[in-house]
Specification:
Elements (H helix, E strand, L loop, with lengths): L1 H23 L8 H21 L4 H14 L11 E4 L3 E7 L5 E8 L13 E9 L2 E4 L4 E5 L2 E8 L2 E11 L19 H13 L11
Antiparallel strand pairs: 1-2, 1-8, 2-3, 3-4, 4-5, 5-6, 6-7, 7-8
């Protein structure tokens, strides 16, 4: 029995790592409209599961609501997506930018450690464009959204897939003392600097809007 339990644990961890890394990687292409329609149905089922287990910090959610309210006056299309999201071992942090209709995304994967790239250290920076109620990212993912839940859709080996996230709170900008989703002590300094630089170069922000 112990052997079976250990084998089951190893298989579960393998599946978790495989799914997490798949979401972290580039998608082969954007999902088609037909694929997205099917994935939206799968997303609805995931939401039912999330609603039974999700726990939220009221103060964090209130901060995010105020932030979204301010941004709704200058860039309403991006507003439903803004915020910090969590899945199993993954975090997704979606920020507005100084370009209307564009968002900045920081993905984190807690089991990623070491290596010569930011991704191999468990963090990825991308940007996306909001259109028709979805986000299309530069690495071929499409985000869908409903209420407090985010669906990350992508295609690998010609199979359209979905990974769900639950909204957990407000946003803070990346800095040398704070990288979203991470214990800052676990990241090499060069990774922190790379993410901070990309964040600034893309015009990303965690501040209230100054556009009129």
């Amino acid at each position: 029995m112990k052997g079976r339990s250990l084998l089951g644990l190893i298989m579960s961890l393998t599946i978790l790592c495989t799914c997490s890394l798949a979401v972290f990687a580039n998608s082969d292409r954007y999902p088609t409209d037909a694929e997205l329609k099917k994935l939206r149905l799968d997303f609805e089922k995931q939401i039912d599961s999330f609603q039974k287990t999700s726990r939220k910090d009221t103060s964090e959610i209130n901060q995010l609501r105020a932030f979204r309210s301010a941004w709704s006056k200058v860039d309403p299309g991006v507003v439903p997506f803004l915020g910090a999201y969590r899945a199993l071992e993954e975090g997704k942090f979606i920020y507005p930018s100084n370009t209307k209709g564009r968002v900045c995304i920081i993905d984190t994967y807690l089991m990623g450690r070491g290596g010569s790239t930011a991704e191999s250290n468990g963090i990825l920076f991308t940007v996306g464009s909001v259109s028709n109620g979805t986000i299309r990212t530069t690495n071929n993912h499409v985000f869908i959204q409903k209420g407090d839940y985010l669906g990350d859709t992508y295609v690998q080996k010609d199979e359209a897939r979905l990974y769900g996230y639950n909204l957990i709170g407000s946003l803070k900008p990346p800095s040398v003392t704070h990288i979203p989703g991470f214990n800052i002590n676990y990241l090499p300094d060069w990774v922190k600097q790379e993410i901070i630089q990309k964040f600034k170069e893309a015009g990303c922000t965690a501040s209230l809007p100054n556009r009129r």
